[in-house]
């Protein structure tokens, strides 16, 4: 593990606590975490992989989630009664999730079903959403998805109902819908700041997919011009991007997928490959360090400040106060309803 002398003492303390707690402790780390945090975790992955890991663990009493708030919430929703979920920094939020507060979504849903009827449309929450939004989906027969399984979730939803309301990332929703050959004129954006989301009743009745007007502050920092420029500089390179990028960027890339997909894409590429990656910079730096036989370059230096809030000091503080500090607590009804929607996702 690369580190300076100042961090060595903290790292040693974390390792000792891990050893003392054994399988009572589960540290989950998202791909976007600092490299030293990822190396100290028991498991790393994207939102989907970590949600699955949290759901199936039978031994851990304490789950420490090194990621952002909605991820820790999901772990708490799926956790068993004897398990405690903690996050090293409760201030590690998510710009995208905050763009769809539960009260806003409840209001929008009420407007939509007045026009479509409740049996015509299915709510679907991206896992990058607050627990209350997931609860709405569970309450109305909907589902949660991640970027790993969005297509499967869309297919499941359309077997149940003719329309889909996808919340909150419009770009992941659009890219998924277009990949399924849904015509652009049957995809609309719901702007919560405008009456009927900025749409006419006729448009709402005609559309098949409604997309909440929301976006990731990291993945919307990538632009088509950047892809074209990098291709000019590195004509033999492959470009892989995350599906939260705009459709213009996705169409110009060679491939598109979740953070776990990108991890596998780089790992499986032959030696001497040049791969340009459009996602959060911490993952790209770690992949470059792990694959020195390949040239791994960022499409642009896109950084998530919330992911960066998790550090060695607050991880150690959490472990020294295991089960006591920064514990995730959720309303029982919200937890129960959100569990329904998350469980459907895992069943896929």
What would you say this structure looks like, in words?
- α1 packs parallel to α15, α6 packs parallel to α7 and α7 packs across α16.
- This protein has three domains: 112 residues, Rossmann fold; 120 residues, Rossmann fold, CATH 3.40.50; 80 residues, NadA-like (Rossmann fold, 3-Layer(aba) Sandwich), CATH 3.40.50.
- With 348 residues, the chain is an alpha/beta fold.
- It has a five-stranded parallel β-sheet, with helices on both faces. A four-stranded parallel β-sheet has the order 2-1-3-4, with helices on both faces. It has a four-stranded parallel β-sheet with strand order 11-10-12-13, with helices on both faces.
- The chain is globular.
- The protein is built from 16 helices and 13 strands.
- The two termini are 36 Å apart.
C-alpha geometry: globular
What name does CATH use for the topology of the largest domain?
Rossmann fold
Question: Can you give the mean pLDDT?
Answer: 95
Beta-strand fraction estimate? 15-25%
The structure class reads alpha/beta
Counting DSSP H or I runs of 4 or more residues, the number of helices is 16
Q: CATH first level of the largest domain: which class?
A: Alpha Beta
Distance between the termini: 36 Å
CATH architectural group of the largest domain = 3-Layer(aba) Sandwich
Rg, Å, rounded: 20 Å
Unreliable parts: none
User: Largest sheet, described in full?
Assistant: 5 strands, parallel
Number of domains: 3
Number of strands: 13
């Amino acid at each position: 593990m690369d580190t300076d002398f100042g961090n060595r003492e903290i790292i040693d303390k974390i390792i000792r606590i891990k050893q003392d707690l054994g399988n009572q402790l589960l540290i989950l780390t998202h791909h976007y975490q600092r490299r030293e945090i990822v190396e100290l975790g028991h498991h790393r992955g994207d939102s989907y992989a970590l949600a699955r890991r949290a759901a199936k663990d039978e031994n851990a009493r304490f789950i420490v989630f090194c990621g952002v708030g909605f991820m820790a919430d999901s772990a708490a929703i799926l956790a068993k009664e004897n398990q405690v979920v903690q996050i090293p920094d409760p201030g590690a939020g998510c710009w995208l999730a905050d763009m769809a507060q539960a009260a806003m979504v409840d209001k929008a849903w009420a407007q939509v079903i007045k026009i479509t009827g409740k049996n015509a449309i299915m709510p679907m929450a991206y896992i990058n959403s607050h627990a209350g939004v997931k609860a709405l989906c569970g309450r109305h027969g909907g589902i949660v998805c991640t970027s790993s399984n969005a297509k499967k979730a869309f297919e499941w939803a359309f077997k149940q109902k003719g329309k889909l309301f996808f919340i909150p990332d419009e770009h992941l929703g659009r890219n998924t819908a277009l990949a399924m050959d849904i015509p652009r004129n049957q995809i609309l954006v719901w702007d919560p700041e405008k009456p009927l989301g900025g749409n006419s009743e006729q448009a709402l009745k005609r559309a098949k997919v409604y997309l909440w007007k929301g976006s990731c502050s990291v993945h919307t920092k990538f632009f088509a011009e950047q892809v074209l420029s990098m291709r000019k500089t590195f004509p033999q390179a492959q470009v892989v991007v995350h599906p939260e990028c705009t459709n213009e960027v996705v169409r110009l890339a060679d491939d598109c997928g979740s953070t776990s997909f990108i991890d596998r894409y780089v790992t499986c590429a032959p030696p001497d490959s040049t791969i340009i990656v459009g996602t959060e910079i911490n993952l790209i730096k770690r992949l470059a360090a792990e694959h020195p036989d390949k040239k791994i370059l960022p499409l642009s230096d896109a950084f998530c400040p919330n992911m960066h809030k998790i550090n060695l000091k607050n991880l150690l503080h959490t472990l020294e106060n295991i089960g006591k500090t920064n514990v995730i607590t959720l309303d029982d009804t919200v937890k129960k309803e959100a569990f329904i929607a998350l469980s459907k996702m895992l069943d896929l």
